[in-house]
Design brief:
- The structure is a single chain.
- This protein folds into 2 domains: 118 residues, no CATH class; 43 residues, no CATH class.
- Strand 4 and strand 5 form a beta hairpin.
- A 5-stranded mixed sheet has the order 2-3-4-5-6, with helices on one face.
- The protein is built from 4 helices and 7 strands.
- The chain is an alpha+beta fold and 192 residues long.
Length: 192
Amino acid sequence: MAGFKLRLRSLPFDTQVFNYHLDGDFFNQVEETEVRSSSVDVTVEVTRKTEDTYVLQMACKGWLIIPCDRCLDDMKLDVDTDYRVSVRHEGDELDDSRDGVLLVPETWTELDLTEMMRDTVLLTIPIVHCHADGECDPEMMARLGEHWADTEPAADGASAEADDSLTDGESGDAVDPRWEALRKLKDNNSKQ
């Protein structure tokens, strides 16, 4: 993976601005992700505070093409996120256990921003990502519709089919003994 490296020790004691562009296969070079295509511009402002302390402010803007969870067709996800971290040379090992602070070994002269940029952008992808209603692929939605169960909602919002599996349709008594045991437990708790 081509890295985006900063030569920390050679930075002057002021603010430097670095610009990067993430496109194509950048997000899939380390491991497979959902990103099919991308165009993200990253601006990194690095302020050297002391001999061994730096503040990195990263701004990421652009878009990703990812699959819709519902229809699997491509969808565009806008990216607009920031990340700020203090970097300090300290000790012999990398330590990223504290929020907002990255401790790098004193022997490091460079800091590779590749993983930091990748993770910052990937964290903008929501757990569930679907097209807005009506924007999914109509052919795929028709195929999905063939497999959805047609059930009438019960008064409490549960499906009528689910209600029938829990009760005897005529008397309303529980058919499954586990439900009867839960009902007894509930009744005992309400009496106390």
